[in-house]
Design a protein that fits this description.
8-stranded parallel beta barrel, 8 strands, about 40% helix, about 15% strand, binds phosphoenolpyruvate, alpha/beta, TIM Barrel
Amino acid sequence: MTRARWVIGNWKQNLLRGPAEALARGLVGGLPDPLIDSDDKVKVGIAPGYMALDVVRPWCRPAGPLFLFAQDVGAQESGAFTGEVGPGMLIDAGVRGAIVGHSERRALFGESDAVVSRKLRCALDAGLRVVLCVGEPLEVRAAGDHEAHVLGQLAAALANLPEDSLNHRVIIAYEPVWAIGTGNTATPDDAAAMHGRIRSWLREHFGAAGSDRSILYGGSVKASNAAELIAAGDIDGFLVGGASLEQAAFLSIIQSVAGP
Ligand code: PEP
């Protein structure tokens, strides 16, 4: 089976509704025609802030070519959970998927592995795609414990997931914390080595369903380094923060993944 290739922009807490709509429109205007006509080359997603979801929706599936993601999702479908946005609310707003376990959620908002696992399960049960983020902090890499750390996050997030739930709706994003928003990108070899390890772990635990999953790299991906990361192999696309706010840079990254 051919693994889907993805480029997903995480806009974080940036862009009011007007600039968000303009960026989505500009991206669609700049996508090469083959990418608009076909699913095969690379799927392009955007994850705007909640308040801008409705203004970008006309550029997203089914009306347009982009896939609409949320940056987070509640760990329960509905109820007395003030401030939370559940998967059903996202689907109702036209959202197709959600990022879960981003390192900023884990570090700044105290999200534990257990919460990440509940969010993942709740989103999948509702029918959303999930981009599950894993990645090690700098001190963990310096100590040489990065593989164990990342595989531990995976094991915790996917614990008790029925084998048939690990389907095309689960996308993994390896995002070393020390590379996010810092300008320090993992070397292509280091990124590819971790992707290979994640893939073999998924195969060991979920069989073919595991090894067929798309594994994206994230962490200071730019127009200038996307092609060499893809060339390293085993990297099925990118989760992009800062550079996804710049139309030309994001389009160039998409082109690197799509190839000539
Ligand atoms: C991210 O936040 O997921 C990310 C990869 O950010 P940046 O590209 O800015 O490092």
